[in-house]
Here is the input.
Amino acid sequence: MLSRIQALQEDHSRLRALLRNCEGAGVRDLAVALLRLEEVFVPHHQAKLALYDDSVLAFQAAGDKTSVSVLSIFRANTRVMSAAILGFLQSPDPDPGRFSERFSAVASTMRSMLSTEEKVVFPLCTRFAQQPRLQP
Amino acid sequence: MSDTLPENLTALDDRARLNTFDGGLLDRTPDAELERLVARAAEVSGFPIALVSLVVDQIQFFRAQVGLPPDLEASRATDRHISFCQYVVAGDQPLLIEDATRKPALPTELMERYGIRAYVGFPLHVAGKTVGSFCVIDVKSGKLKPEQLEELSKLSQAVSARLEALARKWAPPADATEEKAHRAWMAVAESQSLMSLTEQFAAGQLTLEEFQRGLGVLASLGGSLKKEP
Here is the structure.
């Protein structure tokens, strides 16, 4: 589990860099920058959901109801926000000015998602993984 | 001023109405003028809660507020279908509820979770569309005097004027591509309520119970976005 968390954290760094690329891209480069962001975001999201699923099962087996609640909430929220972000990336506004303004909301949503997971979910899973007998 | 709930809610899903919402309206940055107007509404009515509630696609978004409990202050939203404000928008007329528990047609979630009892709401207009409700709310039943209602009505006109100014920046979608892009962006804007709630929980500003209660009144938002990356 620890190596999966580490890989997800590395993805987070990559996603933050790709967000900066999108924010700095000119009209000509924007489509490519958005595509790169989507190419990393989609498999990252899938890997993260798999971690959530495994962690919920592990915490359930350990009888830790609070952690199960927290992880279940984060898993549901991640699904909603990721679906919204992906929908936006796949339907870019043709007006560059309006797109740019709206993209700032998308970037802020994605950054918030990454940082709340780093504050709550990853430490929870890391602590759990460091207890050898309880590891899934 | 009516205490009758409209039965026909189809106006809520009118595409032209929903196209009115853009960055300026759904921005989460506090607007000093709207904040002043809700504070004044609470003062005039004596009710502890006053809101500029924008009734969007899936949620009601509190563009300005005073007096909300911590979880709603964080999310600044509830699911649309459990709101009282949806009736103000659907009927496009002021709504007066002295005691919500005596209105069996009203959704019960906000009464049960937050103890909402009295509600007075005035429709808000932008570009000729009814976008929300300027409302005052109490956790005990109550009735306002005619002069209080008159003052709130005047304040609601000032709120509409401010919203009109905030919304002026972008024209509504001109074709199918722009409309699709607009809908996609609205899904992001609406999901920011979850984001904000989660941020405050992660920062230790909400307890797990408050976090769960805030999520409870946004339960339908998740179900509305089925598509998985």
Observations:
- The domain at 1-229 of chain B is CATH 3.30.450.40 (Beta-Lactamase).
- Chain B has one domain: 1-229.
- The longest strand of chain B covers residues 129-138.
